Amino acid sequence: MELARKVGLPIPPTMVIEGKHPCYLIERYDRRRGEDGKLTHLHQEDFCQALGFSHGRKYEADGGPGFKACFGLTSDQSTQPALDKMIMLRWAIFNHLIGNCDAHAKNLSMLIAREDYQLSPLYDLLSTRVYGKLSQKFAMRIGGQHRSDGVLKEHWERLALAIGDNIRALRLQKNLTQHSLAAMAGVSMTALRHLESGEGASLGTLIRVVRALDRQEWLQGLAPRITINPLHMTPSRGVRRRARAKRAHGEEG
To answer: Is 48 inside any structural domain?
Structure first.
């Protein structure tokens, strides 16, 4: 989780409390304290719930959602679709790099507020490949590949196609022409046309286009109001106080 934070992914504050019985502490991101001191609950639904799948179908191999369905949800429903798609793409790449084969649809969630529907901070980020008895197959296929040690450039390009078919809808939603988006992203018109039509696209093209849409979204004042900024995130005073108390108790024991 701390590695994810250091590479820029939105992660809730976490810490390890040492002592006789070490524990891992994560601050809840679905609670907010009001001016009156009372806690307010932020509603959350994971991607299985949002897409109408039961909890028993969280793996793509069992008929659950894959990347295309998950990216489609953010494109169609999120109030900050470009930013959420970029975070999810980084999430997919990060999970592959650390060997997290258990990144299923219940490990992605949307936070629901009165005017916002957006990706929650990320959670359950760990390497499963270090545990030899656990499955080495991805919870969601990358470009059709389910073996974690078999992912090649062609599979990332297939993933780019699978999630890039919503780019045209995002572009039109923001009243951008193909020419203006291509110029903003620094890609050729041909590459953008291929991305939007599904004829073929590189992962690099997709990343540059989504980044451009992300910048446009911020300029239009659609920056997230409840997404945690990982660059300025430190454990709250309450978390630090509980950690010190736990540590002191462990030392006394």
So the answer is: yes
At which residue do the structure tokens 């980044």 appear?
211
Tokens describing residue 59: 């793996």
Question: Average per-residue pLDDT in the chain?
Answer: 80
Q: Specify the number of domains making up the chain.
A: 1
Containing domain of residue 211, as a range? 2-30+40-224
Which helix (H) or strand (E) covers residue 247, if one does?
A: helix 237-252
Contact indicator for 26, 123 with CB cutoff of 8 Å: yes
Count CB atoms within 10 A of the CB of residue 7.
12
Sign of CA dihedral 101, 144, 163, 61: negative
Taking only the tens place, the pLDDT of each residue in 11-39 is 999 999 998 999 999 999 998 888 888 88
Is residue 249 assigned to a domain? no
**Rounded to two decimals, what is the model's pTM?**
0.70
- Flag whether 10 is in a domain: yes
Which of the residues are catalytic?
Answer: 102
